[in-house]
Specification:
The chain is of the alpha/beta class. It has nine helices and 15 strands. The chain folds into two domains: 150 residues, Quinone Oxidoreductase, Chain A, domain 1; 149 residues, NAD(P)-binding Rossmann-like Domain (Rossmann fold, 3-Layer(aba) Sandwich), CATH 3.40.50.720. The radius of gyration is 20 Å and the shape is globular. One of its GO terms (biological process) is prostaglandin metabolic process.
Length: 329
């Protein structure tokens, strides 16, 4: 019998999450049955989507949602041998039993010198979100100008790097001078700290006086209100996130974008990456290729210890991380 730890949601978040919203539980797991495997978490992901999705997809008392890289420690399923690694939707659990239907094996030719934690980041869901947002939603073309906010986050930094690979001008907004410096290291053409610029509108105009062909939207709220008038006619907006609104107790209201969208004939589309999951094997190989060629750089914000899952999650929502936030067990 294995003792498994899990973090549960005691009550739905009211405003910014608090320590008291989470509870650590311990249970004994049964031996796996035929066709099942026992998994041990190696790396766990914390992501902004967990804040709003917990309201839609969880009941109070449920284990927190999320993905992890796990090692198969017992197996009665020949597709998942002992010692192999998988990406699992097990949530915030140290150990779990699975019948394999929710598991994705780590690609067989994963480079030995690349940390498996990247399967939760640039070579995983956030990286695929960036890729599909650029290629499938925006249809970004060479020499176009792209604006991405939350640009030093797990998705945003990959967005900027892929746009540079495609020969575009990239402007990034982030929330600290350290993050801005990181964006410049990655090759962003322009980057600014939205918290310290005297005027967000002027910062956007100065970074791209000609306007923006594409906006990769991670923030929403006030930033979106200011950015939309800076779009070129027929501009395209990929709506990936709205992190500025996730912790609001009262929903934000207005101003409303409809006249700007009409006059500029803008196209705005919300999306999640799983719409194109049939392309994932080929897409992940491309991402690994860019990594090995030095075209894609990956930075992680690692928190040690399963007991620190809530702290890592709340730190992410405060913007403490540069790159992908991961918990190492």
């Amino acid at each position: 019998m294995v003792q498994a730890k899990s973090w549960t949601l005691v009550k739905h978040f009211d405003g910014f999450p608090k320590d008291g919203d989470f509870q650590l539980k311990v249970e004994e797991l049964p031996e796996p049955n035929d066709g099942e495997v026992l998994l041990e978490a190696v790396f766990l992901s914390v992501d902004p989507y967990m804040r709003p999705f917990s309201r839609f997809h969880m009941k109070e008392g449920d284990v927190m949602i999320g993905t992890q890289v796990a090692k198969v420690v017992q197996s009665k399923n020949p597709e998942f041998p002992v010692g192999s690694h998988v990406v699992s939707n097990s949530g915030w659990r140290s150990h779990s039993v699975s019948d394999g239907t929710d598991l994705t094996p780590i690609m067989a030719d994963w480079p030995s010198d690349v940390s498996l934690s990247l399967a939760l980041g640039s070579i995983g869901m956030p990286g695929l979100t960036a890729l599909y947002g650029i290629e499938e939603v925006l249809g970004l073309q060479q020499n176009e100008t792209l604006l991405v906010n939350a640009a030093a986050g797990a998705v945003g930094n990959v967005v900027g790097q892929i746009a540079k690979i495609k020969g575009c001008k990239v402007v990034g907004s982030a929330g600290s001078d350290a993050k801005v410096a990181y964006l410049k290291e990655l090759g962003f053409d322009e980057a600014f700290n939205y918290k310290t610029v005297p005027s967000l509108e002027e910062a956007l105009k100065n970074a791209a006086p000609e306007g923006y062909d594409c906006l990769f939207e991670n923030v929403g709220g006030y930033f979106s209100t200011v950015a939309l008038p800076q779009m070129k006619t027929f501009g395209r907006i990929a709506v990936c996130g709205s992190i500025s609104t996730y912790n609001d107790g009262t929903p934000q209201t207005g101003p409303y974008p409809h006249m700007t969208m009409i006059v500029k004939q803008l196209k705005m589309e919300g999306f999640t990456q799983n719409r194109w999951q049939h392309k994932n094997p080929e897409s992940l190989k491309r991402m690994i290729g860019w990594l090995q060629e030095g075209k894609l750089k990956c930075r992680e914000h690692i928190t040690e210890g399963f007991e620190n899952m809530p702290a890592a999650f709340m730190g992410l929502l405060r913007g403490d991380n540069i790159g992908k936030a991961v918990v190492a067990v």
